[in-house]
Amino acid sequence: MGIIPAVTVQKGTSSYVQQPGKTGRIAVIGAFDKDGCTVTSGTVTGLKLENYTSLSKLQLELGDGSKNFLGCKALPYLWHKNGGVSSVTVANITSDSKAQTEITTAKLAKALELLMDEQFDILFVCAELDDTALETIVDFRADKLTKQSSIGFVAPLSRTSTSDIIGSAALFADGGAYGLLAQKLLYKDSELTLVNSAAYYCSLLCDKKLDQSFTNKVLPDITGVNTEYTFEDGDDGYDLVEAGVTIFKIKDRINKKVVVVNSITPSGLDVCIERTVDYIIKDIYFDDFLGDRNTKKTLTAIESAMETKKKEYTASLELVEGLEYTVEKESSECVNIYIDSLIFAGVITKIGVYINVEVE
Q1: Cα(311)–Cα(307) distance, rounded to whole angstroms?
Q2: How far apart are CA 130 and CA 155, in angstroms?
Q3: How many CB atoms lie within 10 A of CB 311?
Q4: Which of 199, 162, 155 is CA-nearest to residue 178?
Q5: What's the gap between Cα 25 and its chain centre?
Q6: How far apart are CA 140 and CA 287, in angstroms?
Q7: Which residues sit opposite 27 in a β-bridge?
Q8: Across the strands, what pairs with 40?
Q9: What pTM value is reported for the model?
C-alpha cells in the first residue's frame, strides 16, 4: 500500500465534492457560556444532554463564537456551511458559575455515561485531551460497539514531539479514530486553533459520503497549515501518516489548495472503510424480530432481511463489493447473525504511468 499517495509521472489535484452523507449526528462534550453541571467533592451532578438541530438555537442558549469558551468557539466550525452535520447532542460541562471549564476526568466520565445509550455517529470533545482521557474514549467506544452502536472519534493531538503524537494515535489501533489532527488549519488565511481545526474537519467528514475517501482531496476554504511536513521515508510527515494521523499538505501554493495526504487511520484502514463498517453495524438492527417465535420461518425471514441489506449496501455503498453472512439459531431464545466477510474495494494511493516513446 502507498503510504504517501503519488502519481509517478503527472501531478493532479482532486476536488472535494459536497455530497451529504448518512452519518451527521454529532455528540459534543465541551464548555459553554452557561453552567451545565455541579461538582461537589469531585462528584458531578445535574449534567444532562441537550439536542439541537440548528446552530442558531444552540448559540442562543449556550453562547456564540464570541464567548471565551472552547465549546462556543468550536461550534461554528463544527456546524459549518461546508459540512454535513444534521444534529448535535451537547454535554455542557461548565460549572461553578461559569468559572470551571476544564474537562476533568469526572466530568468526562459522567458525560460519556449519559451518551452510552444515545444514538450518534461521531464524538467530538472540545479540548486537547491527554492519553488518559483518550484511553477513556477508547473504552467508551468499545462499550458502544457491544451495544451495536459503533461510533467514531475526531480529536486534536497537541503533543511535544512526533513520537508522542504517534504514541497517542496507537491507542486507536483497533479503530474508531476518524481524524487525529496535529496541524492547525488556516481557514480563509486565518489560523484556527487545533480544537477548531479538528471541529472543521469533523464537519467535513459528516458531509462526505460514507464510501468516499479523503485521500488527496482538497478541503474547501482551507488555505494553508501552520506546520508543513516532508514525506520521504523516515521523515516526520511519512511516519505520522503511516501511524494514521490526519496530515495535511499544501498541494497548490499559488491557489492555496490544501489536501489530506492520506486518510488512513491508526487501524490501517481508510476512514471511508471505518465509517462504512460502523454504519453497517448500526444499520443491521433487527429489533422488529424481538418477541417473535424462534422457528424456521422466523430464521428464513431474518435471512431474507439480511439479503435485502446486502443488496442495499452493494448498490448504494460503492465501496462495498460483497457481504457474506450466516443466520444461526443458538438456542430457543437466541438467534445469531454472523457477518462472515465484508469485502471492500481498495483506495488508490499509487498510480504508475508508463510511456513508450518511439522515434522514426
Answers
A1: 6
A2: 11
A3: 11
A4: 155
A5: 11
A6: 23
A7: 89, 123
A8: 43
A9: 0.86
